[in-house]
Design a protein that fits this description.
543 residues; alpha/beta; Alpha-D-Glucose-1,6-Bisphosphate, Chain A, domain 3; TATA-Binding Protein; seven-stranded mixed β-sheet; binds alpha-D-glucose-1-phosphate-6-vanadate; binds cobalt (II) ion
Length: 543
């Protein structure tokens, strides 16, 4: 099989966002589109000759076709080996683990994560580096530069490979190994957590549900929770992945996973419930009668991680994205370990994890993870929660109540305005940026701004600088609002407004969240003239 060079003209807009390139599926299906982006990745990393790559995705529409394109191009580029999940399926954390375990040079992950799937929905592709984590900005910038000047790509003429059967194939000079989707990941989880204790907890009558939302965690959760930990059949809901996620929106939050939330809020609901997203890196944690806001989940996990064998020696530090609440900082301070504030997106945690500065990382968007891989990891978070519950022998509600009475409570919510007119959203951000220097001292009802700035980040390990990472408004009495535009959407602009307010251990810890934040929300609405500018009277999603 001789590699064939095809001339091409660059596609516009192949710019990786918060987590890779995400577009409408039909955009990816244009002839040459995947090829041009993959060639740009290969060029940006100095080619793939002699390299080993991991390839897999969340199984959404076009997953299988895109993988065949990648395999042919990897072979044409001289790759030594490509390791592929059976059926082309790998969750994002499992792909990260496989890259590390097999000492691969990198990997390509096919997913648009929490975005819906299907021919009329979204598709995505991203490159991860040899540490198993998303490519840092230096590399994504180089990829984007390549996409703009690309003149040709190289591929093979070869039939599709059978991805369904475990084993090794030859494609040209390249060895393609099809591996079990779940096995290596399940083994890693077994090493980190006390499976016996969790099994005993479940045996004792503790009830749980896990909603895989018709996405990639179905097979992982079924193997781990039901087969290995003995949870009864029916524990995993929507456990068979489908190309359009059962026409749902695989985003584990109170809006899109409402049936699960309703179940757990009922008096006879399960003791514990959780859900994950399209590619398996997010988690939502619920206990009977309580939704655990992701920022609190990170803080609780940091305070209790030592109860799991994998973290028994304690944690080195905690990192959170800037819009994530400061709850985890309070735990880090009490533990006497470092805390870090990074821009949004898991790619910013990699250098801290590699340097051993932090053990746990988290984002308000339902992302939590540790140094076991270099991606956030939904099922990992679920298992760490279960391990903690097995040791503490108490309810999720009690763990939170206890946590707040020790550290105080960071009331927190994110308000999303989705698919807003992009020009209007950009103008809103530009105007607010211009106004920043004059905001300190301005009052909106009971809320007075004390400080306003734009977040820019200098990576403490490699010194790289990332500007324009969100607008921060600090309020009197320890309130905070952050505004930024999403980098994962595929339609118009999504405006995210993050609201939080701290209440000390002796304050009122039982206010309903939206009520606790209503003055702040109103202040931001007035300051930004939200209703006029977005054309919306309320957010589309409140987490
Ligand atoms: C969102 C979240 C961010 C997360 C990213 C990828 O990005 O806010 O915290 O890292 O999605 O997660 P943005 O730019 O839309 O705010 V996933 O599970 O979609 O890979
Ligand atoms: Co995801």
């Amino acid at each position: 099989m001789t590699p064939i060079t095809h001339n091409c003209t660059p596609f516009e807009g192949q710019k990786p966002g918060t987590s890779g390139l995400r577009k409408k599926t039909k955009v990816f299906m244009q002839p040459g589109y995947v090829e041009c982006f993959v060639q740009s990745i290969f060029n940006a990393i100095g080619g793939v000759a002699g390299k080993t790559l991991v390839v897999g995705g969340d199984g959404r529409y076009y997953n299988a076709e895109a993988i065949q394109i990648i395999l042919r191009m990897a072979s044409a580029g001289g790759a030594k080996q490509v390791i592929v999940g059976q059926g082309g399926l790998l969750s994002t954390p499992a792909a990260s683990h496989l890259i590390r375990k097999r000492a691969a040079d990198g990997g390509l992950i096919l997913s648009a994560s929490h975005n819906p799937g299907g021919i009329d929905a979204d598709f995505g592709l991203k490159y991860n580096i040899s540490n198993g984590g998303p490519a840092p900005e230096g590399i994504t910038d180089a990829i984007f530069a390549q996409t703009k000047s690309l003149t040709s790509y190289v591929t093979l003429e070869a039939p599709d490979l059978d991805l369904a059967t475990i084993g090794t194939h030859s494609l040209g000079e390249t060895q393609v190994e099809i591996v079990d989707t779940v096995a290596d990941y399940a083994t890693l989880m077994q090493e980190l957590f006390d499976f016996d204790a969790i099994r005993d907890l479940i045996q004792s009558g503790f009830t749980l549900r896990f909603d895989a939302m018709h996405a990639i965690t179905g097979p992982y959760a079924t193997t781990i929770l039901q087969d290995m930990l003995g949870a009864p059949k029916g524990t995993v809901l929507n456990g068979v992945p489908s190309v359009d996620f059962g026409k749902g929106h695989p985003d584990p939050n109170p809006i899109w996973a409402k049936p699960l939330v309703d179940m757990v809020m009922a008096p006879e609901g399960p003791d514990f419930a959780a859900a994950s997203d399209g590619d398996g890196d997010r988690n939502m944690i619920l206990g009977r009668g309580i939704y655990v806001t992701p920022s609190d989940s990170l803080a609780v996990l940091a305070a209790n991680a030592h109860l799991a064998p994998g973290y028994a020696k304690g944690i080195a530090g905690v990192a959170r994205s800037m819009p994530t609440s400061r709850a985890s900082d309070r735990v880090a301070k009490a533990l006497g370990v470092d805390s870090y504030e990074t821009p949004t997106g898991w790619k910013f945690f990699g250098s801290l994890l590699d340097a051993g500065r932090v053990t746990l990382c988290g984002e308000e968007s339902a992302g939590t993870g540790s140094d076991h891989v270099r991606e956030k990891d939904g099922l990992w978070a679920v298992l760490l929660w279960l391990n903690i519950l097995a040791q503490r022998k108490t309810s999720v509600q009690d763990i939170l109540t206890d946590h707040w009475s020790t550290y105080g409570r960071d009331y927190y919510s994110r308000h999303d305005y989705e698919a807003v007119d992009a020009t209007a959203a950009n103008l809103l951000m530009a105007d607010l940026t211009k106004a920043l220097p004059d905001l300190a001292g301005q009052a909106f009802g009971p809320c007075t701004i004390t400080q306003a700035d734009q977040f820019s980040y200098t990576d403490p390990v490699d010194g790289s600088v990332s500007q324009n990472q969100g607008l921060r408004l600090q309020f009197r009495d320890d309130g905070r609002a952050v505004l930024r535009l999403s980098g994962t959407g595929t339609e118009g602009a999504t405006l995210r407004i993050y609201l939080e307010r701290y209440e000390g251990p002796n304050g009122d810890l039982t206010i309903e969240t939206q009520t606790a934040l209503s003055d702040l929300a109103q202040a931001v609405n007035t300051l930004c003239d939200l209703e006029n500018r977005t054309g919306r009277s309320a957010p589309d999603v409140m987490t």
